[in-house]
Amino acid sequence: MDWTLIAALLAMGAFGGFCAGLLGIGGGMILVPFITMIFSAKGFPPEVIVHMAIATSLGTILFTSLSSVRAHHLHGAVRWPIVALLAPGILVGSWVGPWIGKQLPAPTLALVFAVFISFSATQMLLNRKPAAGRELPGSAGMFAAGGVIGVLAGLLGAGGGFISVPFMSWCNVKIHNAVATSAALGFPIALAGTLSNVYFGWNVTGLPQYSLGFVYLPALAVIATASVMLAPLGARTAHRLPVQSLKKMFAVVLYCLAAYMLWKAVR
């Protein structure tokens, strides 16, 4: 890789890592559009660019989530019982998500990405108050919810915060706890999703050199290094911000990224 590419990946990783800690979104919603831009500029095969961006993003979350959740845990914000209930379904769903993604052409995958993050941004921006008595579902419901979160996160290359944070907020989990708990959920999502992308991309022809399945290893290494360094700063910042500011920030970031991916889908 040339130095300009390394610098771009470092800057992107730093920004993604900060947002991962700040918003509990694993960095994937930030990284996928930017990785798509860079892979497009490098002349990667168009039919695999979005798939590789998603797979590489998931790989970075393996490292970012550990760094981010440690900072949130030190604030006592992670709801570990929620993590334990959601994780089994998430592992299953995160393996299935990349398989679904492999069946879709790149423009369709980009469109799906744009639609889902726009939906999540709207839910946050509307700030609808959940019913006072609404609580998290039982074990079966949490497994099902984890499965849905895992499928969407594995499909879109994100840490799942774009759906797990609104889901927990809807069930009256405080936003700071929801963000911190979502950061903890990023690891099982990234683990199953990355392994799935390696497996389902293993025999795909035309992938660039240094690819492991759909995962592009040089970009993974550079982005992960920068992300891990900035994620704790984002997490500390999150605990200093008021709830409404955090929700609005989450929504604005997601809308901007949805717009780019929509453009990528229709161009």
Automatic annotation (TrEMBL):
Q: Does the keyword Membrane apply?
A: yes
- Record GO cellular component, one term: plasma membrane
Compartments where found: Cell membrane; Membrane
Q: Where are the transmembrane segments?
A: 6-36, 48-66, 78-96, 108-126, 138-167, 179-202, 214-233, 245-263
- Keywords on record: Cell membrane, Membrane, Transmembrane, Transmembrane helix
Supply the PANTHER family for this chain. Answer: MEMBRANE TRANSPORTER PROTEIN HI_0806-RELATED
Family statement: Belongs to the 4-toluene sulfonate uptake permease (TSUP) (TC 2.A.102) family.
Per its record, how is this protein called by name?
A: Probable membrane transporter protein
Organism of provenance: Rugamonas brunnea
